[in-house]
Amino acid sequence: MPTTPTTPTEPARLLLVRHGETVWHAENRYAGVSDVALTDRGLRQAARLGQWAARRGVDAVACSPLGRTRATAQPAADLLGTPLEVVEELREVDFGWGEGRTIEEMAAEDAEAVRRFRADAETGAFPGSEPPSAAAARATAALRRLAVRHAGRTVLVVAHNTLLRIALCSMLGIPVGRYRLVLPRLDNAAVTEIEVAGGRTALRSLNVPALPAVPAGAEAAREAPAPYGTDLSA
């Protein structure tokens, strides 16, 4: 007796975005789980992201529980008329000894600890910090749950620089301890697009600025990140 073929799960498009600029990030400090507010520039980045999301046809908006991601995601949710989905597992990595400090400050105190961290963030994780493998497990599980819940839809996911890089490495089969080497940074309010269906993840674009449809003048031009984003859909 012939069997009816099963239809594969329709992929969800997850638009992964690092939150807007904060005071600590402007000073290159590790914010981690510390709740640091957005700067005025970060608030403008959030507003532009909201406008971009409204044009992009986003269906849902999710974010981590920290204030800087909520403030970045809220303009998009307001323009789209959808509630924020706050996902606890998308919080930033706890940097332990590194919280609130610059890499230069840490190197001045313990250069060997910084050398180990730069060589392999998993085996050389800062004292008292969350290992990248643990962060990857919770973040990957959370993103896959979002993909199942929003199959066939587009979801804006506002989270954090380190957490998103670790999750991307994990979902794309890259050792998470190498996230700093493979993905040097994600810019504030820039978009990385992935498609997720079942256990499969496809990278569609990486670190692309969410720019307004019409240039907003010299101020917007000055705030645009240096070219780094790549659209992989062509």
Automatic annotation (TrEMBL):
<dbReference type="GO" id="GO:0005737">
    <property type="term" value="C:cytoplasm"/>
</dbReference>
<feature type="active site" description="Proton donor/acceptor">
    <location>
        <position position="92"/>
    </location>
</feature>
<dbReference type="Pfam" id="PF00300">
    <property type="entry name" value="His_Phos_1"/>
</dbReference>
<dbReference type="GO" id="GO:0016791">
    <property type="term" value="F:phosphatase activity"/>
</dbReference>
<protein>
    <submittedName>
        <fullName>Alpha-ribazole phosphatase</fullName>
    </submittedName>
</protein>
<feature type="active site" description="Tele-phosphohistidine intermediate">
    <location>
        <position position="19"/>
    </location>
</feature>
<dbReference type="InterPro" id="IPR029033">
    <property type="entry name" value="His_PPase_superfam"/>
</dbReference>
<dbReference type="InterPro" id="IPR013078">
    <property type="entry name" value="His_Pase_superF_clade-1"/>
</dbReference>
<feature type="binding site">
    <location>
        <position position="68"/>
    </location>
    <ligand>
        <name>substrate</name>
    </ligand>
</feature>
<dbReference type="InterPro" id="IPR050275">
    <property type="entry name" value="PGM_Phosphatase"/>
</dbReference>
